Amino acid sequence: MKKRLAEIEKTSKLLEPGSQERLKIREQVIHYTEDFLNTIESKPAFVQSKENGVGLLKSPIQEEPVSIETILDLIHKNVDTPGLNPASGGHLGYIPGGGIYSSSLGDYMADITNRYAGLFFAGPGAVRMENMLIDWMANTIGYPKGFAGNLSSGGSIANLIAIVTARDSFDIKARDIEKTVIYATAHSHHCIDKAIRIAGLKEAIRRNITMDDCYKMQNEKLEQQIISDLKDGLKPFMIIASAGTTDVGAIDPLKSIGLLAEKYKLWYHIDGAYGAFFALTDEGRKKLEGMELSDSIVMDPHKGLFLPYGIGAVIIRKKELLYKSHFYAANYMQDALKAPEELSPAELSPELTKHFRGLRMWLPLKLHGVKPFRACLEEKLLLAKYFYLEIQKLGFEVGPEPELSVITFRYVPKNKKEDADKFNEMLINEIHKDGRVFLSSSRLNGNYILHLAILSFRTHLSTIDLTLQILENLVRNA
Ligand SMILES: *Cc1c(COP(=O)(O)O)cnc(C)c1O
Do 438 and 306 reside in the same domain of the chain? Predict the structure, then answer.
C-alpha cells in the first residue's frame, strides 16, 4: 500500500504547482488578460464566425497535460473571439453586463483561499461579508430592518427564491393552485414564468395586466382585475412588478401597486434585476420610489453594479419567511447549526456549498468606493437621453422616452413603408456584420424594432456617437 501511495503521491502533487511554476503560468494568464483589456476598444463587440468555437472539440480532455500556451490559444480562438463580447463597451443589446477588473481580483482571492461562504460556523467572515452586502443593498432601496437576502448566481435564481418564499408564506397547497392568481404584465421577464413553473405554480392563473402607452402596468386595471377575481371566488396571491423591463426599460407604478398589494393583502414582488441599482442615483431614486413597499425584490449586481457574470441578489422583507422556506437540518450539520450569530446563505437559499460571491462585490465597493458606481449609472441615464434625441434627428421613429437606459426605435423608409419590418431586420443584420457595436432586435406592438440598452461601464459618449454614425450610414440612402 505504501509503495503505491508513494507512486501516486508524485502524480497527485502535480495539482500543487510550486511558487516558480505558479509564477510561470500566472504570467502567461496575466499577459493574456492584459492584452485582452489593452485592445478591447479596438476589438469588435460581435464576431460572426463559421466555426463558432468548434476547435475546442478537436482538443479533447486527455490523461496527459497541455501547455498553458496551447490552452490560452484555444481560449483565444474558440471562446474569446466568436460571438458577443460582453466585456465590450459596444455591447448595447439585450441588457448588457459588466466585468470590472477589481471584481476579478476578488474572485481570484476567493478561489485561492476557497473560504466556505455557506455557513457561519465555517466561514464567519465570509458570511458576515455577504450579509453586509445585503444590508447595503436593502438600505439603497429603503427596506426597513428585519429583512434577509441572498447573493445568488444571477437574477433568474434570485426571482425563483422570491417566488418560492411567496408561495410558502401563503401556504399554497397543490389543491389551491388552480384558483391562485398571479398578476404581472406581458413585459415581465421570461425568467419569472420559468420560476413560476419550477415553483410548481404552472397551473396558477396568470393575469397580464394591460399596460399604458409607456408599457407600464395600469394600476386601475390591476385593481379591477383583483376585485373581479375575488368576486369569482379565486385567490389573488402575488403581484409581480418590474423596476425596469427588458423590453423598454419601463418602471411599473411601484408605489400605487404597493398600496394595492397592501389593501388586498397580496405578496408584492419587484423584479429589479435590470433597474434597481439606478436607485444609487438621484434621478433613479425618485423614479423607483415604492420599491421599499415590496415583500421581495431582485437586484442583479452583474448588471447594474457592472460586476462580471455570476452574481444576483434577492432580498425578502421579512427574514423569517425566507428562512422558513429554505432552512433544513441534517445530522452531519450538527456542529454548524449551533445558535449562529448571523443567518447563513445555506439557510436562506437552495444552495449549500457555494462560490464565495461576496468578495467579488465587496472588494470593488471598498477599493473604489460607491462614488464611481453612482457616476457610471448616472452617465448611462444621460447617454440614453442623448441617444433618444439624436436618433430622432436621423429620421428614426422611437418608442417611449427612456425612463432608464433602454431605447427602442426603428426606421421607416419613405418610399417603401410596407417593408419597414424587413428594412429594420436588414439594419440589425448589417450592424451584426459590422460588429463594432452590438444591438439586439425585438418586437413591440407587432413591429420589428431595434433595441439599444446602455449598461456596460465601458459605454461612453464616443460609443454612442459611433453607434449613431453607423446607423446614419445605413439609412442614408433609404
Ligand atoms: C436579466 C434580467 C433577469 C434575469 O436575470 P439573470 O441574471 O440573467 O438570470 C430578470 N429580470 C430582468 C428584468 C432582467 O433584466
Answer: no
